[in-house]
Design goal:
The structure holds 2 protein chains of 2 kinds. Chain A has helices spanning about 1-15, 15-35, 40-50, 55-80, 95-100, 105-130, 130-140, 145-155, 165-180, 205-225, 240-265, 270-285, 295-320, 325-335, 345-350, 350-380, 385-405, 410-425, 435-455, 460-465, 465-500; strands spanning about 185, 190. Chain A is mostly helical. Chain A has one domain (about 1-500). Chain A has a two-stranded antiparallel ribbon with strand order 1-2. Chain A starts with a helix and ends with a helix. The mean pLDDT of chain A is about 85. By secondary structure, chain B is of the alpha/beta class. Chain B has a 6-stranded mixed sheet with strand order 2-1-3-10-4-11, with helices on both faces. In chain B, α2 (about 45-60) runs antiparallel to α9. Chain B is globular. The chains are: A mainly alpha, B alpha/beta. At the A-B interface, α3, α14 and α19 of A face α2, α3, β7, α6 and α7 of B.
Chain lengths: ~500, ~325
Amino acid sequence: MESLMGLLSGFAVAMTWQNLLYCLIGVTVGQLVGVLPGIGPTTATALLIPLTYGMQPVSAIIMLAGIYYGGMYGGTITSVLINTPGEAASVITCLDGHEMAKQGRAGVALGVAALGSFVGGIASILGLVLIGPPLADFALRFGPTEMFSLMLFGLTMVVGLMGASIVRGLVAMFIGLSLSIIGMDPISGVLRYTFNQPFLINGLDLVTIAMGLFGLSEIFLGMENLAAVGKPEKLTSLLPNRDELKSTTGAVLRGTGLGFLIGLIPGTNSAIPALLSYSMEKKLSKTPGKFGKGAIEGVAGPETANNSYCGGAMIPLLTLGIPSSPTIAILLGAFIMHGLTPGPILFTQNPTFVWGVIASMFVGNAMLLIMNLPLAGLWAKIALVPAKLLYPIVLIISIIGAYTVSNDLWDVGVMLVFGVIGYIMKKIDIPMAPIVLTYVLGTMMEKALLQSVKMNNGSLVGLIESPISLTMIILAAVVLSGSVYAEIKHKKSAIAGEID
Amino acid sequence: MKKLSVLSAVMSACAVFAAAPAAAQGAFPQREVTIVVPFNPGGASDMTARIIAKGMEAELGKPVVVVNKAGGSGGVGMSQVARSAPDGYTLSYIPVELVMHKALKLSDLEPSSFEFIGQTTMVPSAVTVPADAPFNTINDLIKYAKANPGKVRVGNSGAGSIWHIAASALEGNQKVTFNHIPFEGAAPAVTALMGKHIEAVTVNAGEVKAGVDAGKLKILAIMTKERDPAFPKVPTLIESGINLEFVGWGAFGAPKGTPKAVLDVLGAALKKAASSDEFKQFITSRGMVVKYRNPEECKEFVNNQYVFFNDLLSKMELGK
């Protein structure tokens, strides 16, 4: 009850015209940087902090937080329209979102993404208001050991992403894991596969890889025969059809829960809930064959999950002062710069500030929905642009985007190389999703496992001693054996069918 | 008529601009100055450079632009500046990492790759533990570590990072054995400390401020020579009887061979920028300390640090 009263007073703060304006600026900037490949919300938040120096603290944080969750809305647009993710959280949306655009359903994809984002965003902020503090304390129990087991569980989901051929799926997994090894060894500091290139010391950038694998390879493939590039005849409405409505609702609800929970766990990033939601939707779907060919759940789930993640990730920050993800760490810096230290004390010392920021997140999500629904129809028209006009533009946007990752041509080169790799992979039919999932999880798993082993003086025992970790490992084993069993049963019945 | 007057105004303005440099015999700077920050936006280094850039801009009368070129533990950005034309138009924010690169085999950079314009900041390291830990002084922690070799897990901001070396320096000084746990940056290490997955961290004081204020963490000692004004009650290592001083720092430099006249202009602008109230307020709010050293003092300090770190790093098993 106390928190609801707080929230009401927060709305009084958030609804002043200055704060509404700053909120609008924040979510608009967020939306824009989400659209542009390369510059993500993390960079944008960081770059704008100095500008907030003379502002009221509450306005400053309202604006910066707006960039953070606004970015999750924008990233979808380029994923769907030109198969080039605007930021890491929308990488997986390329797979089905762009297929939908090719079928003239870009509007549906964007509309569903906007609605899902809104539901995920609002639900996670409600979660923050109602059940945040006790959950945040629980989430602190996730150390490196628990993190590894959680990621292990996530990795078993990759089985569902493999597509028709297990061998090709394994090849893709292998590529993803190999890429994740590049860079400095997280424990000993040994340089691996860096070939004396300082650019490789910190590894490769996910968005750069994805821009090449998804976006550029699509262009290369399309250029082989420009006339035959699939272009929709007309655009459909913004709403999913009746058959899809139920599965879409399910995907949105599951995405909300998943994103919120992962947001609570320190050390995660917004790409993880999106990837896991996609894997989960495919696994739960009655028609997994539709994934990769324009399944609406493959857009609705991840896009909801990454927004819900944002609200969840604010909980450890606001209640305990914990920087749980890169963007949140920058927000924490902004709090401190404005003389505010996030944590339990802030709620008692400066309640109007905290509740003002929380209330503004409701307002900001509403603004984003209002902005995005009509825009979805407009954006969708881009799908009608002929390839010979669209491709050069996409190429230029991608190159600029890759350049902005670290203001260096190096990333442009990396993107081009991955464009060629993606082209070859599409030619020989190797699925893309496992590469992205194993790349993201592989990097984190390796670090977490090595940290865990080091913390237990070289022993793996921590993985079983921690109850959370043990539960995750058992779950992983169940999922894996379940998949194997289903596969065998499927094969057997197929063989039996042939004999009949 | 109006058009004409605008045109003539523009032309006369051009004439003034064209004449001014000639009068000043090509005084530096003629155009915008770029400061390369070798880390991502948003961190303490980036913010330091941006506020300094703003101050220098006011002094130099030409735009001072900050560009982020992250990667290779600062190596990508610093190497680029070291290789660029020594004309004073491309400068680098130089973090303490510069003196560690050679020993860690990260790059060939060394202090002699740069001309120093001045030092602006010190970044104190704080030995921090959970608020309910059974240690109340740094000596309690050391005593426990001596009795239990390898039991004290100390989180740092990455293998071979400055705060990893801070813990190693303390370890070597006190002849104890810590279990060093590297994290990707200081923030995750602090998070793990709050979750009590590790026993202590030796990261910069600014990173633990939120946890300390929230009553979740306590600082046992500051590793600088003098107390940190942000935590006036916390003793230094030296006050606690541990003869060790360890500090991160931030400086600015130009490529080797930049003319003395240009360096003087830049040095004066940097000194002014580093003494502004805005800069002081920001640095203190982020748990850092304003420490200005002029070009000569800075050069000497960095060279001493180079020797100190090379000595320390040669005793550690890193990058092998």
